[in-house]
User: Which sequence fits this backbone?
């Protein structure tokens, strides 16, 4: 079976384009890609390895590559608050954080956009499994984000 890299790239581009729409900035694909990486990395560091593998199984191949880039299997960090998760997302962005996230609230909006985009690709059951590990305040936020157009 031949691998169709053009098709894989097209699916990855489709994902990033959809995320850019959810971020409200269709023209800024670079920002959408950085936000995607930050949120996925912050999320994966808080999921068990098993849960990460279940999530990755449903992602387009190019997005799987973003997810695993730089991944070191280690004990996952427990998420205690929404703000803690937002700060982790901002920290993942390093020196670009000031450009991509003006505040913790903006990082939360980026998380919302990524979750909406994931909901287009990942089964509801898998998203509920991910949401189940979150603190109560985030569970409510993520459930709202998944169902908000």
Assistant:
């Amino acid at each position: 079976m031949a691998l169709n890299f053009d098709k894989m790239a097209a699916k990855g581009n489709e994902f990033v384009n959809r995320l850019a729409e959810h971020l409200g900035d269709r023209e800024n694909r670079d920002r959408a890609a950085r936000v995607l990486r930050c949120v996925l990395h912050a999320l994966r560091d808080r999921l068990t390895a098993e849960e990460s593998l279940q999530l990755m199984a449903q992602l387009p191949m190019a997005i799987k590559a973003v997810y695993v880039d730089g991944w070191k299997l280690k004990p996952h960090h427990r998420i205690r608050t929404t703000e803690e998760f937002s700060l982790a997302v901002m920290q993942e962005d390093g020196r670009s954080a000031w450009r991509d996230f003006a505040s913790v609230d903006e990082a939360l909006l980026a998380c919302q956009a990524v979750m909406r985009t994931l909901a287009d690709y990942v089964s509801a059951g898998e998203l509920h499994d991910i949401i189940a590990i979150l603190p109560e305040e985030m569970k409510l936020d993520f459930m709202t984000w998944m169902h908000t157009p």
Notes: The chain has one domain: 7-147.
